[in-house]
Amino acid sequence: MQPSGCGKILTATNSYRALEDVVGERGLLHGKDEFKMCNYWIKGPVGSKIEVVFVSYTDRVATDGCRFAGVEIKAGSDKRLTGYR
Question: Which domain of life is it from (predicted)?
Fold first, then answer.
C-alpha cells in the first residue's frame, strides 16, 4: 500500500521514461528538521529488474549527507526498512 502524500505509482516499461521532480525547497539556505516525503512506487512484472538512473541534481542540493534533500530507494519487501541512499 502506497503511503499518503505526494508522489505517484509508476509502471516500468522496456524503455527509459523520464520523471522530473523537485527534491527539497528552492531557496532554502539551511537544513530542516523535517522533510516533505514524496513516494514514487515503480511497479513491474514479478521477477523483472527495474533500473533507476539519476541524471542531474541542482548544485546546492548535491551535498554530502541529506542536509537539504535526499532520495532513498527501497528495494526490499519491507518498505519500513532503510533502503539505498
Answer: Eukaryota
